[in-house]
Amino acid sequence: METNFLFMCNIEFINQRTIQKMSNYSLTAIISIPEVAGYFFPNRHFEHISRNMLYSLMVDKLEAIPQIGKIIINTDARRIKDHYSRYGKIKVIDVYRSEPQEIELELTSDKVTTAMLEHVETEHILQLGPIFPFLRQQTIQNAIENYHRYVLDPEDSRYDSLFTIKAMNRRLYDSDKNMMREDRPNTFVEDGILHIFNRSTFLANGNRKVGKNPFSYSIDDIENLAIDSEENYRLAVLIDEHRYRFPGVFGR
User: Fold this and answer.
1) What is the pLDDT of residues 135-168, one digit of tens each?
2) Is 234 helix (H, G, I), strand (E, B) or coil?
């Protein structure tokens, strides 16, 4: 009994130490939400999920996270500017307007980041994609904790940045239909949901969020669902109406 008590006290001490360390720095969250989002589903940021517009779902999650001290929204949408004009934690800017073809080909991410960083004062930045309605707040907080543990902690700083991935266990073929791997290896895809990095690493890597030695953080399939087409939006509405069928993501 005494051994168990000492073990629990030690765990609690470690947790409190981690919280104290994390309180010594603040993250700025940046998110880009253009009025027109590409060619194929241009109004996607303003579609409703759970009686909320998609863009506000993401911003609300960021607002609720204590480690995030400031939220910078890049947008040319007047309704977003008006909505957040009086929010103390949120600053709305309009510094980079992506062309529709850039959005569809996902070519603007680091360009937007570069433009937005001119309006960010802190060293540590979290960038979030705006079209993932089922990304959990707890997932964001877990990613922040992993950034602290594996990037910032001087006792164990093996990585220089963090980004989220989707893992796919698939057989791989080349363009001639020749099997590249007989087994079913895990293939990892950058999903574009979340990046956490620091300004120094970003600049040192030629204005790239994903550093030379990034920590990859895997996210569940449903959290990876992107509202990038009308079909995916309809699927998201169906999932939202039947959340009880996905207790692993939404709880019981």
Assistant:
1) 999 999 999 999 999 999 877 678 999 999 987 7
2) helix
